[in-house]
Amino acid sequence: MATENSDSPKNGGFRTGMLGTNLEHAKEHNLRAVIDAVRRHGALTRAEITRTTALSVQTISNLVAELEQRGLLIAGEAEKAKRGQPARPYRLNPDGGYSVGIQMDHQLALAILVNLAGEECAQIQQPVSRPSPDEGIDILTNLVDQLLESAKVKKKRVFGVGVAIPGPFDVSGPTGIGPGWVGFPLEERLRERTDLPVIVENDANAAAIAERLHGAGKKFENFVYVFIGMGLGAGLFLNGQVYHGVRGAAGEIGHIVVETDGISCECGNKGCFERYVSLRAAYEAIGETDDAHRTPEQLEKLYDEEDPAFMAWLRNAADKLRLGVQALESTFDPEVIFIGGLLPTKIAQALVEKMLPPLPSVVTQLKPLDERILVGISATSAPAHGAASVPIFYEFNAELYKHSNKLKS
C-alpha cells in the first residue's frame, strides 16, 4: 500500500470510520478500509466486512484474498451458520508487520518493537544526558539498528518508526530533551539514517493512539486521553481521528490556569494545571528536586507506604483533575476521558477513584454517561508503546496521513 510523501501528517480530520469506494483507482483506500474494519472489530467474516465498509461482495472477496496473500489477514476456523455455507472470520495477522516506537527525554532513550497486534517483541534502552540533536540522532539510529538485529526482523517488514517526545515545545526552554531541538528536522534526519518512514508525535497523542488501537479506546470514536508525565497534556480523538490543531498544539492543557494566584509557572502565569497534576508536581510535593533520583517507582513505593506528603499531593491532584474533566467534557463532549501516562497503574487507578464522583457538567445533564472517566494505558514505557502504534495507525488511515510507506508482503 504505497502512499505519497507530504510535508506533514498533522492536518486534523473528521471521519467516523473508513468507508470503501467502488472506484477502481481507489483500491489502496479500500484495502485500508478492510484492515481498519477488522482491526476495530477484532474478527469479521466477509459478509460482515461487506456491511461495515459498504463495498460490493465481489470487491470484498478480491480485497480479502489479496490481504491474505500479503500476510496481513489470516482466516480462522469456519463458524456454523444457520443457513448456507459456514463463514470464516478474518483477523489481523500479528506477524504481518512490525513497528518501532521510541521515547526520549533528557535522561533516557527507550525503543521497543511491536507486531501488528501491538504485542512487544523486543526492547532496548539507553541512559542519556540532555543530548544535542546530532548526538540524539546517533543514539536513536543505533537503537533502531540494535532492536531489529536482536529481534531478527528485516526492515522490509517494518511499517516505520514512531518517536514520542514530551510535547511539541516547552515554554521553559528548547524542549524536554535538551538544547537545540526546537526546529530540528528530526523526522527527516532520522528517516535518512534509518531508511524507514519516521513520524514524530508528542507523547500525549502517541499514548492516545495506542489507547485507540490496543486499549479500551477501541470502542470509542470520541475521547480525551489525559497524559500525566513530567508535564500534563491531552490527546484528542474526534470522530475516530487524532486532532492536532492548526499549529500542532491541540491538547496542551498543562498551562490552563486552574488556580488564580497559584504556584508560579515558567510560562509566566500562576496556577497552571501541570503545576498540580504531573510527576514534577508529585516530586516537588515529597521534597525531591534531584532529577537523578526521580522515578515513578519511587512514587509507587510512597503510595504503598501511605506517605503523608505524597497522599496529600494525590488528593490535591484529584481535586484539580475533577475541574479539568468538567472543562474537557463541556468543551469536547467526549464519550469518555482516559487518565493515563507515566504514572504506575495503581497510582492512576487511585487518582481516578479519588476523582469520583466527578463534578456535574452540561454534557452529563444533557446525556448521562455510564463511563465518564477510565484509567488509560499507564506505564513508564507508555510513550514508546504509543509511538510504536503511530506508524500503524497512520498507515491504516492514509487518506489523512500520507507518508512514503508500504505494507510489506
UniProtKB/TrEMBL annotation:
<dbReference type="InterPro" id="IPR036390">
    <property type="entry name" value="WH_DNA-bd_sf"/>
</dbReference>
<protein>
    <submittedName>
        <fullName>ROK family transcriptional regulator</fullName>
    </submittedName>
</protein>
<dbReference type="Pfam" id="PF00480">
    <property type="entry name" value="ROK"/>
</dbReference>
<dbReference type="InterPro" id="IPR000600">
    <property type="entry name" value="ROK"/>
</dbReference>
<comment type="similarity">
    <text>Belongs to the ROK (NagC/XylR) family.</text>
</comment>
<dbReference type="InterPro" id="IPR049874">
    <property type="entry name" value="ROK_cs"/>
</dbReference>
<dbReference type="InterPro" id="IPR000835">
    <property type="entry name" value="HTH_MarR-typ"/>
</dbReference>
<feature type="domain" description="HTH marR-type">
    <location>
        <begin position="34"/>
        <end position="83"/>
    </location>
</feature>
<dbReference type="InterPro" id="IPR043129">
    <property type="entry name" value="ATPase_NBD"/>
</dbReference>
<dbReference type="InterPro" id="IPR036388">
    <property type="entry name" value="WH-like_DNA-bd_sf"/>
</dbReference>
<dbReference type="Pfam" id="PF12802">
    <property type="entry name" value="MarR_2"/>
</dbReference>
